[in-house]
Write a structure and sequence with these properties.
The protein has 227 residues and is an alpha+beta fold. It is 22% helix and 26% strand. The protein has a 7-stranded antiparallel β-sheet.
Length: 227
């Protein structure tokens, strides 16, 4: 069974998957270097929570700064290669899971030491476009004592019991703190080249504070028109 087959099997069975081998190391390194260059150019902006008119900034909830991959940086080879790679992955997700993913959106994320992202769902309330979330980590020589893990929680059913058929929440993108039924299923150390995939409307997750600057490339596969 190939790396992609294992990844998809885990995504199907658990709602999330992690791989250290599916992304070429040279691509992860090139993206890391490019993210550092963009940071030095001052193009990162503090991230917000919510959407549209409800956008707010609260670094105690979400503490990263982000830079979207858009027309300003897609001509750079690392971004163009990454988007070509994710486009191929999107087509494979469509074939394997009979999805209708039509677009994708990604941004670099940088967390200062001590900052994290409180437990939340990636699917905004009142929308359903985000289907599969992707995180690629870009941190060299990351050690367990550096912290900054991605915590993945099991979904809950409407009666508060764990289950795989839980409806997407209707509120904003931050959810209440995990209750006794929201079991912690995995803590993912953000090592360079490590890829995490999970269902955007099923898997609550959070980013724990780190002791070092923490880099990633994050985004979503969507079933609406490309943004």
């Amino acid at each position: 069974m190939g790396f992609q087959d294992v990844l998809f099997q885990s995504l199907e069975e658990r709602g999330w998957a992690v791989s250290d081998r599916i992304v070429p190391p040279s691509l992860a390194q090139a993206l890391r270097n490019h993210a550092h260059q963009l940071w030095q150019q001052g193009v990162f902006k503090p991230a917000s929570i919510g959407r549209q008119a409800g956008l707010v900034r609260d670094p105690d909830i979400r503490g990263d700064a982000i830079c979207w991959i858009d027309d300003n940086n897609t001509p750079f080879p690392p971004c163009a290669e990454f988007l070509a790679w994710t486009d191929a992955l999107r087509q494979e997700l469509n074939r394997h899971f009979f999805l209708s993913l039509r677009g994708q959106e990604f941004h670099f994320a940088r967390y200062e030491p001590g900052r994290g992202y409180a437990r939340h769902m990636d699917q905004h309330g009142g929308t359903s476009a985000r289907k599969v979330s992707l995180v690629l980590y870009l941190n060299e020589d990351w050690e367990p004592e550096d912290g900054g893990e991605l915590c993945l929680y099991g979904p809950e059913t409407g009666d508060g019991e764990p289950g795989r058929d839980a409806p997407a929440p209707s509120g904003g993108d931050r959810q209440p703190d995990p209750g006794p039924n929201a079991a912690l299923e995995a803590k993912v150390l953000p090592e360079s080249g490590r890829l995490a995939l999970f269902l955007s409307d099923r898997v609550p997750h959070e980013v724990l504070p780190a002791r070092r600057v923490r880099w990633s490339l994050t985004g979503w596969f969507r079933d609406d028109a490309p943004l």
